[in-house]
Amino acid sequence: MLLVFLFSFIISGKFNINGIINITYLIFGVSIFLGTLYYIYDIYFGPKKRVNELKKYPFTELMKIGFKHKKDYLIGKINGFTVIVGYNWRNEKGFPCVYGIILFDPRINGKHMNNYDLNKLQNSIKDEYNFWEYGRLKTEWDFTKEKPNHKSIITKLKKNSNLILNKGMNKINFENWKNEIESKYSESKKTNANTV
């Protein structure tokens, strides 16, 4: 907001409340316009772009070792773990990236993992490209200069699958993982509805 005041003062040479209001409207309008463009691109053009990227390197190399094309991602096995690999045209850092997700059973000794468990796992790896999430370990490779090498992707996924095993977690197939995630979230919705 301070920048709006400063910008208004610079343009008009004096403090003008109408200038501040107009600049605020302009900023608000541009934000809505850019947000709408981002949404349209992601919803309408994003899936096609993701599918087209799967026809290129490094994804073609992953298909050669047994990964199968599903919707807008690839699915396969590494060290017996189900692995999903795909393309994200804009990650949290704003770069296009390849992502790899290794699925694992989100229960340890029959108990569901919670945020404390996930934070503890995240802090144990000290890696800004790995993200522990409920029932999965996600890794990203940015396209900052060039596409990542398929061998480095496979090596990292193998290393991460061993990390999951060393943490005492079990393998799970995609359908069981999906059912487990859905049951966990429907359970938490019921719990939240009962506490309101």
From TrEMBL:
The keyword Transmembrane helix is assigned to this record: yes
TM ranges: 23-41
Top-level taxonomy: Bacteria, Pseudomonadati, Bacteroidota, Flavobacteriia, Flavobacteriales
Official protein name in the record: Uncharacterized protein
Keyword annotations from UniProtKB, A to Z: Membrane, Transmembrane, Transmembrane helix
